[in-house]
């Protein structure tokens, strides 16, 4: 299996990452990617940049080191209502928005509350993917959330960092179940390294074996081709990106 896009990466701007977007793009080129989503943490995360950082992402060139750049954000799911910490006026400047739980922003609660928050953020239409869902501190009803994600064309992230056993310990077991159920339901999967240092860009050494274990069809993994990914964004109602015309 070949993955040509990394949809979850961080730069110095996140406050606890260690590389620039130029370094991340150079690493992407070295590792054979075609597109890179830059997804720094949204403002509610400690150390994260101001809202203006994301609205000003329009100044980023569409290609750095010949790698197509998707202007994105890892937003925080704020509450049971499924609100995220980006203003509605900001999201039109972005190509790709992940919604994730983070302890400093949404302290772990009950399975029922986590489930309701995920259902509401999906239905809001404001996120393109749900990030690192395997965290055992955020138990949720996998079946109902994935059914809702399929209905609303929200991708389910398979996060390499979650599978290492170092971060979000215990995620590997839950991620396995999510992928298993996701295949049965027919959700779209996306793949993110969650790199906080450029050497970890495109690191999918745990992601690929998990997807292959469950024999996920390539047409359900939106990162297996540029056209698949960009067409998924259009499926979600986003406008085509003229600079990427040759990649559709």
From TrEMBL:
InterPro entries: Phosphatase_YcdX_put, PHP_dom, PHP_phosphatase, Pol/His_phosphatase_N, Pol/histidinol_Pase-like
Positions annotated to bind Zn(2+) 1: 8, 10, 74, 194
Domain called Polymerase/histidinol phosphatase N-terminal: residue spans: 5-79
Record-listed Zn(2+) 3 binding positions: 74, 102, 132
Co-factor(s): Zn(2+)
Record's keyword annotation contains NADP: no
Binding residue positions for Zn(2+) 2: 16, 41, 196
GO cellular component, one term: cytosol
Gene Ontology BP term (one): bacterial-type flagellum-dependent swarming motility
Co-factor binding comment: Binds 3 Zn(2+) ions per subunit.
SMART domains, alphabetized: POLIIIAc
Keyword Hydrolase assigned: yes
GO MF, one annotated term: phosphatase activity
Pfam families in the cross-refs: PHP
Top-rank taxon: Bacteria
Keywords for the protein's UniProt record, in alphabetical order: Hydrolase, Metal-binding, Zinc
CDD domains hit by this protein: PHP_HisPPase_Ycdx_like
HAMAP family: YcdX_phosphat
Cross-referenced NCBIfam families: PRK09248.1 (NF006702)
Similarity comment: Belongs to the PHP family.
UniProt-recorded name of the protein: Phosphatase
Organism per entry: Vibrio sinensis
Organism classification: Bacteria, Pseudomonadati, Pseudomonadota, Gammaproteobacteria, Vibrionales
């Amino acid at each position: 299996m070949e993955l040509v896009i990394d949809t979850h990466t961080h730069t110095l701007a996140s406050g606890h990452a260690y590389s620039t977007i130029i370094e991340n793009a150079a690493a992407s080129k070295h590792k054979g990617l075609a597109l890179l989503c830059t997804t720094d943490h949204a403002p509610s995360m400690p150390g994260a940049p101001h809202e203006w950082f994301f609205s000003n992402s329009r100044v980023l060139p569409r290609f750095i080191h010949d790698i197509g750049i998707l202007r994105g954000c890892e937003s925080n799911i704020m509450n049971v209502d499924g609100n995220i910490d980006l203003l509605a006026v900001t999201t039109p400047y972005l190509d790709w928005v992940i919604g994730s739980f983070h302890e400093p922003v949404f302290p772990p609660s009950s399975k029922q509350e986590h489930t309701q928050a995920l259902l509401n953020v999906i239905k809001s239409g404001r996120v393109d993917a749900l990030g690192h869902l395997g965290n055992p501190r955020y138990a949720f009803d996998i079946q109902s959330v994935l059914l809702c994600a399929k209905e609303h064309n929200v991708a389910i992230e398979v996060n390499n960092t979650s599978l290492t056993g170092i971060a979000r310990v215990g995620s590997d077991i839950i991620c396995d179940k999510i992928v298993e159920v996701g295949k049965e339901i027919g959700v779209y999967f996306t793949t993110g390294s969650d790199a906080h240092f450029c050497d970890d860009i495109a690191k999918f050494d745990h992601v690929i074996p998990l997807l292959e274990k469950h024999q996920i069809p390539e047409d359900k993994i939106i990162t297996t081709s540029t056209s698949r990914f960009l067409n998924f964004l259009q499926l979600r109602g986003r406008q085509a990106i003229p600079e990427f015309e040759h990649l559709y």
